[in-house]
Amino acid sequence: MRRPSEWHIGARATRRRIIMHVGPTNSGKTYNAMQRLQTAESGVYCGPLRLLAHEVYERFNSAGHLCNLITGEDRRIREDVYVPLTSCTVEMVPLNQKLEVAVVDEIQMIADPSRGWAWTHALLGLQAKEIHLCGEPTAIDLIKRICETLNEEVEVNEYERLSPLQLADKSLNGNLKNIRKGDCIVTFSREGIFGLKQEIEMQTGYRCAVIYGALPPETRAEQARLFNDPNSGYDVLVASDAIGMGLNLNIRRVIFETMEKFDGKAVRPLQTSQVKQIAGRAGRFQTAYAVGEATTLEKSDLPKLHRVMATPQDNLKSAGLQPTVSTIEQFAHQLPRMPYSQLLGQFEDMAKLDGRYFMCNFKDAKQIAERIEDLDMLLPDRYMFCTSPANVRDLIVVKNLYKVGAPVAV
Ligand SMILES: Nc1ncnc2c1ncn2[C@@H]1O[C@H](COP(=O)(O)OP(=O)(O)OP(=O)(O)O)[C@@H](O)[C@H]1O
């Protein structure tokens, strides 16, 4: 694990240009990178959410730029014709293909404790002549430090926000009746979304569209269309933090229902980056609202919002890493009878890393490994199952993983 720069021979044999597009939300970073991608003879878009991968896939195809789709749940690959472009979630990035252009969105996610490894893999392993990295300026220093180990220069394009974002000096005073047309209220639990939708519809007479991560992409696109269409009768959006990354919606004002979120262990204050991303959805360039606004539902939360929005963000320190299947195979060779979940634990304890990297947590992988332990699988298959982006907090998903795994067992 000490020299990830040596892991991807194909990428090391490719002369790559690394171009960063950095700036605040709604500054046109992704737009500029995507303009380049759509003219490429071959290319890939790697997004942080399947919703975004799907949006890009739809947008390219409807503009006549043929594009395939690869996400954990969905593969739409045309075999009848040459398709130059692929839109995928970053975990599904095709590292075995030689490409002209790759766009890796939300590059600051490289420091995410669980998913960061996927951005690191894409950065280290893409065999593309041009790699466009879009995201927050906090990533510049880390990307440069990693690229030094690859003998690659980094070009940096900095952007300014295209339309103003104002912080309100009043909250909604806890009263949903203060909701207006064009508002998007952001909440952090799926149950909360439907309760809130019902409450708002009852108290205000506005109809609400809803968007959250687990929604099927077609339904999400339909909900976004309803909200964006001023004549649809759906004037308010109730959304989870899934709207925080990249999506372009006609939002006048973002309202934080709360400034805290349950992170799987405890209720914690929202992270600075997350708050800025979500607030930044208001007043998107070339939408119906030239100026965006952000506020909170509760009066007591408003000073927190102001404080967080004024907090400068620290530069990222290190990038997530996860062992490749061959690294795990070599390790397993030394400990032949050890159950896979324990093997992952041992690996986590023993791995030595260069200071530019940290080991992504194996929490989810270990949980899947325990669930499918009694299936007699080849190690690469087990590795694939355990690294799949399955929501392990959903018991039905975990149960189904076992069912899907059973026919793969030898
Ligand atoms: N030069 C341009 N011409 C037309 N539209 C543009 C241009 N630049 C950006 N836009 C539009 O402005 C909106 C915001 O741009 P974009 O999504 O690229 O911002 P971003 O900086 O990547 O934002 P975020 O980080 O919030 O996702 C999009 O709807 C995009 O299509």
UniProtKB/TrEMBL annotation:
Domain Helicase C-terminal, first and last residues per copy: 171-324
Entry superkingdom: Eukaryota
Taxonomic lineage: Eukaryota, Fungi, Fungi incertae sedis, Zoopagomycota, Zoopagomycotina
Catalyses which reaction(s): ATP + H2O = ADP + phosphate + H(+)
Record-linked Pfam families: DEXQc_Suv3, Helicase_C, Suv3_C_1
EC number(s) per entry: 3.6.4.13
PANTHER family given in the database record: ATP-DEPENDENT RNA AND DNA HELICASE, ATP-DEPENDENT RNA HELICASE SUPV3L1, MITOCHONDRIAL-RELATED
GO cellular component, one term: mitochondrial degradosome
CDD domains per record: DEXQc_Suv3 (cd17913), SF2_C_suv3 (cd18805)
EC primary class: hydrolase
GO molecular function ontology, one term from the record: RNA helicase activity
Cofactor(s) the record lists: Mg(2+); Mn(2+)
Annotated GO biological process: mitochondrial RNA 3'-end processing
InterPro entries: DEXQc_SUV3 (IPR055206), Helicase_C-like (IPR001650), P-loop_NTPase (IPR027417), RNA-DNA_Helicase (IPR050699), Suv3_C_1 (IPR041082), Suv3_DEXQc (IPR044774)
Protein name per UniProt: RNA helicase
Keyword list, A-Z: ATP-binding, Helicase, Hydrolase, Mitochondrion, Nucleotide-binding, Transit peptide
Keyword ATP-binding: yes
Compartments it resides in: Mitochondrion
Broad class of where this protein is predominantly found: mitochondrion
